[in-house]
Structures are given as structure tokens and as C-alpha cells.
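Figure 6 in text form: structure in, sequence out.
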């Protein structure tokens, strides 16, 4: 099977009732983005999210010109909260399309805390939160935007640390797939690159 996306409804013409793009590029971590703006605090999940650099540490997320992008454009900061399995229903509740100024922390019943370095709220019970300063805000196709932020603060709840490592089997982070599908990371294995055999872990 082959189709060209730019040719209208290419997937439908190929016999697929739904666009498979998000199922092909999967799993994707969920960036539960919190911001603060002139109308109050905002919390929203983004599945177009990932780390893009580690020195300095940088992350990106992308979406339409909604409250998150509008707020960080004005404030220059945002926070990324990790979604653990136990938080999946609250995360989903915060995705509801509501009027500007509605506080999704309250809407989803999520406990709020203040960030340490930036003027921004964070999810108090998230296994980890990254405090970020915006370094790039780029307009993509149409009304979609991509924000790149440099991590200036890291919160980790101690119960998710084991032997000094952030343990994903304890966190059980939620990932986004295609369609209405999600996954949970429940099993982790190690794999050493051939050129790293014998080297100490950095």
C-alpha cells in the first residue's frame, strides 16, 4: 500500500477509513503543559512533544494557537509535567475545549503548586516537572505553532527514584498512540550500543 498525503484524502483513497499518521509515529510522550496568562492558569496535554537536546536540555511541543501557546508567548515560560498512569483521567479531563480563563487544574481536580524558578504553576503530584524558558516560538503550517524551551529547573518526586535513577517502571508514564489509543510504559530493558561496551555510564 502507498499513498501521498498531500493529494486530498490520500488515506481514504488507499482504503483506510482513518489517517494512520499518528499510529505510525508512536508511541509519543505526553507533555502536560502548564502556563500562566493574564486570564489565569492553564493546563493542557500535548502529544506532539519530545526532548530535542540534552546540552543544554531542551524540549518542544506543538499545537494550535490555544491558551498554552498564547500564554507562553506573553510570559516566556512554561512547565512540562509527566503524566503517570494514575493521572490519566485527570490528564484527559484537562484536554476539554473550554472558554479562555477556565482553570483546567480546578476543572480536572489537579493539585497545583508553584514552580521554583519561573512564574508558572505546575502539577504538584506529577512524578517529574521541567521548568522551561522559551528559546524559540515558530509558526508551522496553518495556525500551528512549535515552542522550544530550555529546561531551567527539574522537580522529581523522591518516591519515583530507585538507586538514584528516575524509574519508569514506578512512574508508568502514559504515551499517546494513534486514533483514541494510549499506552503505559510498564516494562523496561537495557541495551548497550556496540561502541559503548566497557565504557562507564555517563
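Output sequence:
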Amino acid at each position: 500500500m502507498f499513498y501521498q498525503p498531500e493529494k486530498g484524502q490520500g488515506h481514504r483513497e488507499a482504503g483506510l477509513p482513518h489517517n494512520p499518521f499518528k499510529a505510525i509515529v508512536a508511541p509519543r510522550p505526553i507533555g502536560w503543559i502548564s502556563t500562566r496568562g493574564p486570564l489565569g492558569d492553564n493546563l493542557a496535554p500535548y502529544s506532539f512533544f519530545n526532548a530535542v537536546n540534552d546540552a543544554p536540555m531542551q524540549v518542544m511541543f506543538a499545537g494550535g494557537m490555544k491558551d498554552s501557546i498564547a500564554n507562553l508567548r506573553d510570559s516566556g515560560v512554561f512547565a512540562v509535567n509527566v503524566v503517570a498512569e494514575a493521572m490519566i483521567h485527570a490528564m484527559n479531563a484537562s484536554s476539554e475545549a473550554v472558554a479562555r480563563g477556565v482553570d483546567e487544574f480546578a476543572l480536572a481536580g489537579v493539585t497545583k503548586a508553584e514552580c521554583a524558578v519561573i512564574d508558572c504553576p505546575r502539577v504538584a503530584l506529577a512524578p517529574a516537572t521541567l521548568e522551561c524558558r522559551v528559546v524559540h516560538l515558530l509558526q508551522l503550517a496553518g495556525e500551528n505553532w512549535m515552542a522550544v524551551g530550555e529546561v531551567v529547573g527539574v522537580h522529581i518526586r523522591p518516591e519515583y527514584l530507585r538507586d538514584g535513577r528516575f524509574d519508569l517502571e514506578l512512574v508508568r508514564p502514559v504515551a499517546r498512540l494513534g486514533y483514541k489509543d494510549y499506552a503505559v510504559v510498564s516494562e523496561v530493558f537495557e541495551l548497550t550500543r556496540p561502541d559503548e561496551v566497557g565504557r562507564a555510564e555517563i
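Caption detail: The chain has a mean pLDDT of 94.
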